[in-house]
Amino acid sequence: MSHPSHPLIRKFKTLALIGAGSLTMAACATVPGANVPAGSPITQAEAQQGAQYHEQFVAEFGGEMTGPQAQYVQQVGQNIAVQSGLASTPGAFDVTLLNSSVNNAFAVPGGYVYATRQLVNLMNNEAELAAVLGHEVGHVAARHSARRQAAAQRNQLGGVGLAILSSILLGGNNPLGQQLSQAALQGSQLLTLSYSRNQELEADQLGIRYLNSAGYDPHAMGTLLQSLAMQNQLDAQLQGRDNATIPEWASTHPDPASRVQNAMQMAGNATGVTNRDTFLSRIDGMIYGDDPQQGVIEGRQFIHPTLRLSFTAPQGYYMINGTRAVSVNGDGGRAQLTTAQYTGNLDSYVRSVFAALGGQQAQIVPSAIQTTNVNGIPAAYGTARVNNGQQQVDVTVFAYDFGGGQAYHFQSITPAGQAGVFNSLYQSMRRISAQEAGNVVPRRIDIVQAGGGDSVATLSRRMAYTDAQEARFRVLNGLTGNQQVVPGQRYKIVVRSN
């Protein structure tokens, strides 16, 4: 979660209280484009539309990265995008590296292409970077979003807000259990259009065509999809354990594992460059996982060194650190820490959060609002029982006054009568000292060369994690099955480093 003085922290406008997730290459985000024939150059209307949404997309995903790493991603992205015929010069494309710890990439009409640093860190060569960006440009070139124009128009960016929650709780068409298992979308992702399997395969095919024309090894699309599938599997394995792991995948799109073989077949016997060493040199030192400026998750603990706060998720729950909220998810319910406008009155603050959750479609009113003190922090809370059409649920808001006109709150949803599952979460909120804040050191990619005595085991032990070191190392380096490291070859490890 970003610093509150940053424009990213404003009134929370997402599909709140569902397990938050990310959209990856298997679930690509886009904004609606003009209904023009596939393969046609960018129209003026599309260019205007892309420019209109650009800043909002950047804000939703942690901000734009700058420097040599961002310039490298921009160069590769522009070179692959121009192969699409959407424009005749690389400079017509705006390629942005996003400071986000989720695996995501997307492109929007108008020549705007985006990739998160976390997804770039998962790649193992420049051809894979070109593949993922080419896939996203393929969606735009094929005008896939235009075919879902009506759906997008019903979900305008920033215009939906938390009123959506009332339809989640009260809609009746979707049982609570189903809703709790879905991936929440950040504000920009309200515009996400569920690409069909055929559209995903078509974007893979176009991406492979662009790789060929740019001189890259077209098999990079398949190896990239393989890495994504491996990451997906690892996330699923880690998610149920007593730690905090980001589930990187939305469930409504084709699994990349099912597309790997198809991509390899489309690549055929063609060859090309991968530029592995160049790529590894360029990403050396890139932040991996949470950026301390946005807070970090360590096991069940969330620490924000800038906001100087910390809390601990209940046993068996996992956390997701999003741009505007930290989500706490488990079988017994979902909660999020976020913030809203604060006038200095906690009672009014809690009531305003409930009002925002209900929106215009429904009133959600707590039975009472009580005040308390949590580790020296003034707090107030209330719970409202809501019928979602299938069963009753409890919605709780627990707010804290951190002083200086700044408040934060947890908002949670649990089955009726089980709101207490988050009591330990609410009571764990505390301020942290300057020393504790200073001890938060980010993880970074470190490129190392395998020596003659090195193995997967020896390099894995250098990973800055206390669990699943070998599994993380294998996924990070795209090592499948029993594949071993090769002496003299360079590999990625994750270390702690400022």
Structural class category: alpha+beta
Unreliable sequence segments: 4-27, 29-34, 150-193, 241-253
Rg over CA atoms: 23 Å
The percent of residues in helical segments reads: 25-40%
Report the portion of residues in β strands: 15-25%
Terminal-residue CA separation: 20 Å
User: Could you tell me the number of beta strands?
Assistant: 17
Description:
The chain has 498 residues and is an alpha+beta fold. 33% of the residues lie in helices and 19% in strands. The protein is built from 16 helices and 17 strands. It has helices spanning 44-60, 68-81, 117-122, 126-141, 149-153, 164-170, 176-181, 197-214, 220-239, 257-267, 276-283, 346-358, 423-428, 434-438, 456-460, 469-476; strands at 94-98, 105-108, 112-116, 287-288, 296-298, 301-304, 309-312, 318-321, 326-330, 333-338, 369-374, 377-387, 392-401, 407-415, 430-431, 443-449, 490-496. The strands form four sheets. The protein has a seven-stranded antiparallel sheet with strand order 8-9-10-14-13-12-11. Helix 2 (68-81) crosses helix 4 and helix 8 (197-214) packs across helix 10. The chain is globular. The relative contact order is 0.14. Residues 4-27, 29-34, 150-193 and 241-253 have low confidence and may be disordered.
